[in-house]
Amino acid sequence: MKARTVRLWSMVHTWTSLISTLFLLLLCLTGLPLIFHHEIDELLGYAPQPEAHASAARATPQVVADAALAADPGRVLQYVSWDKDEPGIVTAFTNSAPDGAPDNATVRAFDAVSTKLLGPVGVGPMLIVLKLHTDMFAGQAGKLFLGAMGLLFAVAIVSGVVLYWPFTRRLRFATIRDSAARRVRWLDWHNLIGVVTVAWALVVGLTGVVNTWAELMLNQWKATELASMVAPYAGKPPPVRLASLDDVVVRARQAAPGMEVAFIAFPGAPFTSSHHFAAFMRGDTALTARLLKPVLLDGETGEVADIRALPLYLQALLISQPLHFGDYGGMPLKVIWAALDALTIVVIGSGLYLWVARRRKRAPAKAETFARRARVPS
């Protein structure tokens, strides 16, 4: 590789890394506890626990919905969800209006058998960590900004890989020059750990970028696919009386054989129309359980109105979300994700140290050059 090309790649690597460093450290530091968010919530007592039942039958969806409305008088249901990993719990979202803002929603967990209120969901210190990680409390603008930092991170990774060979071609792989100066030893560690974590960092960085576009993707789906699905109901008044949620669930399962209901959006909620229930169905394998298929059902009769697969960009989003946090392989994968996260923090920190040390080393040389030029007579 020519010296000029190396300098160009070095400049790209340096400045993309420096610009994104502070925010990458924030993302890595907040992402570390988020890998174990469920375990931390349980430890701190913020994770609702279902009651013990000896193979008792689960309450019907309508009974759960009635319990949720009774627990929050004067409000309406937006969503009811069933977590595949927590079969003993049903989660209900209530709000002041069907199209109420997400920040105004109340999220509660109910026992799937007795429908007893188990407590609120999404509270506690991990909520603060999550907000810092996703948007820094700046809403959609914060998400898009962090997405831009993620793209810079991806460029820094690619440029670092390009530079790895020219800077280490005379050394054996994984060589750490212990007898060299501190800055050189840190450079060797920076290169080694960077190479070890490169694939993981690139995957997590890019899936994080995709996640920051989630709201934009959903808005696109609502403006195109969903609008097409509900077009036959244009101009019709919303239902006066809603169909039984039990009938909605049964008909949704019939429309999507081999799939189970992940969550149901009630008429007027952001994920459906004012005329329809939307049952989002999931499969029963590790991959298909993450991919959803929406079934639209008439809000008054419960009859199936339309069923379509989600577009590829939303399927990519659904896959990227668990992949970002390693949330699909149990505790062993979480531990691996946490170790790689910690190593990435070392790479970022060592990169910042190397930049500072390099500038300090250059400062005396520049001062000496300036003094020498000043002594030269004009």
Automatic annotation (TrEMBL):
The chain crosses the membrane at residues 12-36, 144-167, 192-214, 335-356. Keywords: Membrane, Transmembrane, Transmembrane helix. This is PepSY domain-containing protein. It comes from Bradyrhizobium cytisi.
